[in-house]
Design a protein that fits this description.
108 residues, alpha+beta, 3 helices
Length: 108
């Protein structure tokens, strides 16, 4: 894992192959947001987003990674990468209540 955070262009990689690794990615995202000056509500929202993306990777692809980096101007970039099966129909998949994993279907 790259450990230099808070500098535009540098990224951290958070490998995911087990549910226990989700918390580490969530914490790293929260810390990155705090360093960028985000307020507490925004830090929490980003942490929730990373948690959902990481959990989806574990559920649907078994393994993958979350990449985090600062952007010039104070933003952050979050990439969720995996080699899972993907979505056959994105429009249908994005509707609330749609699930392929037996969950509530109200995530990302």
């Amino acid at each position: 894992m790259e450990t230099v955070l808070g500098i535009a262009g540098r990224q951290s990689s958070h490998q995911l192959s087990d549910a226990s690794q989700v918390a580490s990615a969530r914490r790293a995202a929260g810390e990155l947001c705090a360093r960028q000056g985000y307020d507490a509500l925004s830090v929490g929202e980003v942490a929730l987003l990373v948690t959902e993306a990481a959990t989806n990777i574990i559920k649907h692809a078994a393994h993958g990674e979350i990449l985090l980096r600062c952007l010039k101007g104070g933003g952050i970039e979050i990439l969720a990468l995996d080699q899972g099966p993907g979505m056959n129909n994105f429009i249908a998949s994005s509707a609330d209540g749609t699930t392929t994993a037996g969950s509530y279907g109200v995530g990302l």
